[in-house]
Amino acid sequence: MIPPCVKSRNLVWLAGCYIHFVAGTSDINDLHSNSAQELLGHAIEMLESGGEASVRIHQILEKTGVTAPVLYRAFGSREGLIIAAQTERHRRAQVAAANLIVDTVERSHSVKELFENLRAALDIIFSLERRHLRLMRLQVLSSAVTRPALLEAIHEINDQCVQTMSKAFELPVAKQWIDAKAKIGHALLWGVALIDTRLVVELHESPDEEIIASWDVLSKHAILYSIFGENLSKFT
Predict the structure, then answer these.
(1) Which tens digit of pLDDT belongs to each residue from 164-207?
(2) 160 burial class (0-12, 13-18, 19+ CB within 10 angstroms)?
């Protein structure tokens, strides 16, 4: 069992816990140094431009001016740096979605407004402009298939983001705006996974816009139903 991170922006520390555990390196606090964050930033840039094969330690050291001992103290190895970078990429994508949902719920002052705001938020989340976030999560998940440390970090990030979103729903639950049978945490986690499956219909040289539109309608209705239950018929 790994200790929870206190702040979502420090979730990269989570992967670091595993890196140091597996590699047997010395000081987890090295991950918080400016040099380590600079190394991490360059690793992420390389991942996003050329995949994991493009992450080259000597190039990162040349660009940052950081010495090799600093990198190995912070991340243990090239593998450790990749795990930390993939963890941070996933964190960024999940936090972007969680923040949007939290803001949407918190500015809703009636059940009707909550429905309208959530529907609008889903339009944004499903948009083409956010495809890069869906693709990022898919790439990280693919990377995690053979990396238990990364997979566990992803689970922890997902759990914490779901907890954050669930907390925002506490007032709507108390006011009985949503289905009393709804398990918000479960619905949110399922909804995030469903959104990512949109890549199945949109990652094509010539995507079928009619299929994508149908997918959006069905998926949005399913997510909203998981929150509002039979009450959804009052708004649609």
Answers:
(1) 999 999 999 999 998 877 789 899 989 988 988 999 888 877 88
(2) buried
Alpha-helical runs (H) found in 24-168 = 34-50, 57-64, 68-75, 78-106, 111-125, 131-144, 148-168
Contact partners, residue 164, CB within 8 Å, separation at least 6: 8, 98, 102
Instruction: Using the structure block, give the residue that is written with the tokens 């149908």.
Output: 214
Contacts of 204 (CB under 8 A, 6+ apart): none
Among 220, 194, 224, 226, CA closest to 112 = 224
Q: Decide: 94 and 157 in contact? Cβ < 8 Å.
A: yes
Query: With left for phi above 0 and alpha for psi between -120 and 50, is residue 127 left, alpha or beta?
Result: beta
Task: Give pLDDT tens digits for 37-77.
Answer: 899 999 999 999 999 999 999 999 999 999 999 999 889 99
What's the pTM?
0.81
> What residues contact residue 83 under an 8 Å CB cut-off, 6+ apart?
15, 18, 19, 147, 149, 150, 153
Provide CB contacts within 8 A for 64, sequence distance 6+.
35, 38, 39, 42
How far from the centroid of its chain's Cα atoms is residue 68's Cα? 30
Which one-letter amino acid corresponds to residue 206? S
Write down all domains in the chain, each with its CATH number in brackets.
8-234 (1.10.357.10)
What are the residues whose beta carbons fall under 8 Å from the beta carbon of 168, sequence distance 6 or more? 101, 102, 105, 106
